Every structure is written in C-alpha cells, then in structure tokens.
Amino acid sequence: MGFKQKIRPIEILLIEDNPGDIRLTIEAFKESKIANILNIVEDGIEAINYLENQRKFKDKPLPDIIILDLNLPKKDGREVLAEIKEDKLLKHIPVVIFTTSQSETDIFKCYDLHANCYISKPLNMNQFIKIVKSVENFWFTVVKLPVYA
C-alpha cells in the first residue's frame, strides 16, 4: 500500500519595483500548473529584511528561488545579490536576475557575484509572460532545488 506525499508549494520571492512587471509576473505565475506562493518586495532594503526575517517579515519562510531586478530603490539589486551570496544561510538559494539592463558590465558583475542566471526583460508583454513561464518550467520542473526546513 502506497502513500501520497504532500507536495508543498514553491516559495518564490520577487524583488521588483515596477508595478507593470509585478502585475505581469503575478499573471504568469497564476496560470502555473505548479503550486507556488509568490511573495513580493519592492526595494532592496525590504528584500534583505524579508530574507533575514526582520520587521514585518518575521515569520516568512525562506524562498526556494529569488527573482531579482537590478534597478531597485534604497538598495540596488547588485548589492542585494552580493549580500545574499555572502550569507551562509542564503547563498544556496538560486537567484535569477530579471532586469532591463543588457549591459555586459552588469552581466559579468552578476555572474561574478554568483547569480544563477541573467535574463533581460523583453519589452513585449507576451514575450515577458513567455519568459516568466520558461523560468518557471526550468527552475520548478527540471532543476532540483534544495529544501529548507
């Protein structure tokens, strides 16, 4: 006799300040066939507070994956990435850079800081949703993510 293993939803942290991009990302993940919980913070300081369970994020679980924009208010995405990858507890969480920047300097800097992938946001809405869905498909069905207790 077998048993059913309860599959918990994938915890996603979206660090993004653009309301339009937030809305498109929410829509793309709503259509997902994979159970997920999308948490959103809109600046770099909130992102660090979330990841360190500070202030209003006291009881939030660690995300399974982070989707990070580079051009954030208060604390830039590059700084956030550096802090994540320097932290013993956080450094294993995959970070997907999802930004408008196509600068070679940004691409090299992010990989230098151990980003797991770098994606430039398309200007076309349909392409944007298609890319979010391909990120979802790759990271949630192909890749084996670490499980945090």
Characterize this entry briefly:
The chain is α/β, with parallel strands linked by helices. The protein has helices spanning 19-30, 44-51, 77-86, 104-112, 125-142, and strands spanning 10-15, 36-41, 65-68, 95-99, 117-120. Helix 1 crosses helix 5 and helix 2 runs parallel beside helix 3 (77-86).
Kindly describe this structure.
It is a single chain. The chain has 149 residues and is of the alpha/beta class. The chain has a single domain (10-135), classed as Response regulator (Rossmann fold, 3-Layer(aba) Sandwich), CATH 3.40.50. Helix content is 38%, strand content 17%. The protein has helices spanning 19-30, 44-51, 77-86, 104-112, 125-142, and strands spanning 10-15, 36-41, 65-68, 95-99, 117-120. Helix 1 crosses helix 5 (125-142) and helix 2 (44-51) runs parallel beside helix 3. The mean pLDDT is 85.
In CATH terms, the superfamily is: Response regulator
* Radius of gyration, in angstroms, nearest whole number: 15 Å
Kindly report the spatial arrangement of strands forming the biggest sheet: 2-1-3-4-5
The biggest sheet, with number of strands, parallel, antiparallel or mixed sense and barrel status, is:
5 strands, parallel
Number of strands: 5
Report the average pLDDT across residues.
85
Identify the CATH class: Alpha Beta
Strand content of the residues, in percent? 15-25%
The CATH architecture term is 3-Layer(aba) Sandwich
Q: What coarse outline follows from CA principal-axis ratios? A: globular
Poorly predicted segments: none
- Termini gap: 28 Å
Helix and strand string, N-terminal first?
EHEHEHEHEH
Summed up, the helix count is 5
* Annotated CATH topology: Rossmann fold
Helix content: 25-40%
Q: How many distinct folded domains?
A: 1
Overall SS class: alpha/beta
